[in-house]
């Protein structure tokens, strides 16, 4: 990877780390489910008008939109609204990586190595330690919701991979553009999120958040939503996808592990969030487990064994965000570039 690409990868990690502070600002003003609906609606409208629908099976598009878009952001936004610290949320969401490995093995019969299992076990141990620590402070539900968000993201990963698989194409020879798939995924969440918001938050709360946009919290909430859409999703994902097309996935994907480092550091400086010693130790365990379970030296080399290439297709994208992984050959790049992270 060139020095320029390393700087760009670091920039993306910074962008996505700041994203959690932007979400924090958004849910301070907007009801969380309503905020999630607005976040996708802003992308869905121009997508419907300007972007051709990718040639993928409808069930995989819906699965991607419901898993990655609807439930991930519903659980994440509600969890942060209930008190999940922004920095800790950026860490716990990395559980998507081991979840993707396990679901790929169970549902798609992807091969799993002993190294991956060790990484999954270490990451899960870190999650349990964080949950135990938070339970002592009566703050376990936000952690559980964030873990469910990571699980939903993993389901979305599998659906996006199936959507881009040549074997799942509606017609022989159909090839979907990964960016178009990511954009069309955003068409799915607005209606279910608006419906959930109406049921659990009510139209009065929705209207109150819109009617008070001229207040201080309103401006910050609007700025947070704008950042999530324009910087976190469009700019961050665009740079990340470009990096994955120029470099092996095994070289690029580990930079995503800087996201919780940035998120927790900025939350400490700007929001005054101070993790306990147990949470810091658990954070190190989670990041190490994700790194061990999703990357190996063989991934950085196109000449690695066929077995490692199959494993890479299943796991190297699990730690990234809105368009994640690609391997050295073009087919694998197309399959993985749409596997995303909410950011």
TrEMBL record:
SUPFAM superfamilies named in the record: Multidrug resistance efflux transporter EmrE
Transmembrane stretches, start-end: 7-27, 33-51, 58-80, 86-108, 117-133, 139-160, 181-200, 220-244, 251-271, 277-298
Residue ranges of the region described as Disordered: 298-343
GO cellular component: membrane
Keyword Lipid metabolism annotated: no
Membrane topology label: Multi-pass membrane protein
Xref: InterPro entries: AA-Vitamin_Transporters (IPR050638), EamA_dom (IPR000620), EmrE-like (IPR037185)
Residue ranges occupied by any EamA domain in the UniProt entry: 7-130, 143-292
Subcellular compartments: Membrane
Compositional bias segments (type: Low complexity): 314-328
Pfam families xrefs: EamA (PF00892)
Keyword Transmembrane: yes
Domain of life: Bacteria
Keywords: Membrane, Transmembrane, Transmembrane helix
UniProt main location, coarse: membrane
Family that this chain belongs to: Belongs to the EamA transporter family.
Protein name, per record: O-acetylserine/cysteine efflux transporter
Organism, as annotated: Amycolatopsis arida
Upper classification of the organism: Bacteria, Bacillati, Actinomycetota, Actinomycetes, Pseudonocardiales
């Amino acid at each position: 990877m060139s020095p320029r690409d390393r700087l760009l990868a670091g920039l993306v990690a910074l962008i996505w780390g700041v994203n959690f502070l932007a979400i924090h600002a958004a849910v301070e003003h907007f009801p969380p489910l309503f905020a999630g609906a607005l976040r996708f609606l802003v992308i869905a409208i121009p997508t419907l008008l300007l972007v051709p629908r990718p040639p993928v099976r409808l069930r995989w598009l819906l699965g991607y939109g419901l898993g990655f878009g609807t439930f991930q952001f519903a659980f994440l936004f509600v969890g942060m609204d209930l008190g999940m610290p922004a920095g800790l949320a950026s860490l716990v969401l990395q559980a998507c990586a081991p979840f993707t490995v396990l679901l790929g093995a169970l549902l798609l019969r992807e091969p799993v190595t002993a190294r991956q299992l060790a990484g999954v076990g270490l990451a899960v141990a870190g999650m349990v330690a964080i949950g135990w620590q938070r339970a002592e402070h009566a703050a376990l539900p936000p952690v559980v919701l964030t873990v469910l968000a990571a699980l939903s993201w993993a389901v979305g990963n599998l659906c996006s991979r199936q959507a881009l698989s040549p074997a799942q194409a509606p017609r022989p020879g159909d090839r979907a553009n990964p960016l178009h798939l990511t954009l069309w995924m955003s068409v799915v969440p607005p209606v279910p999120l608006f419906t959930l918001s109406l049921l659990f938050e009510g139209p009065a709360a929705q209207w109150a958040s819109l009617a008070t946009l001229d207040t201080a919290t309103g401006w910050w909430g609007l700025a947070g939503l704008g950042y999530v859409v324009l910087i976190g999703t469009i700019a961050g994902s665009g740079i990340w996808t470009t990096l994955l097309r120029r470099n092996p996935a095994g070289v690029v994907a580990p930079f995503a592990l800087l996201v919780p480092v940035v998120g927790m550091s900025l939350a400490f400086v700007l929001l005054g969030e101070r993790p306990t010693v147990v949470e810091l130790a658990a954070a190190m365990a989670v990041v190490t487990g994700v790194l061990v379970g999703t990357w190996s030296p063989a991934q950085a080399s196109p000449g690695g064994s066929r077995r490692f290439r199959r494993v890479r297709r299943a796991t190297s994208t699990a730690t990234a965000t809105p368009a994640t992984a690609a391997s050295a050959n073009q087919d694998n790049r197309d399959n993985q570039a749409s596997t995303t992270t909410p950011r």
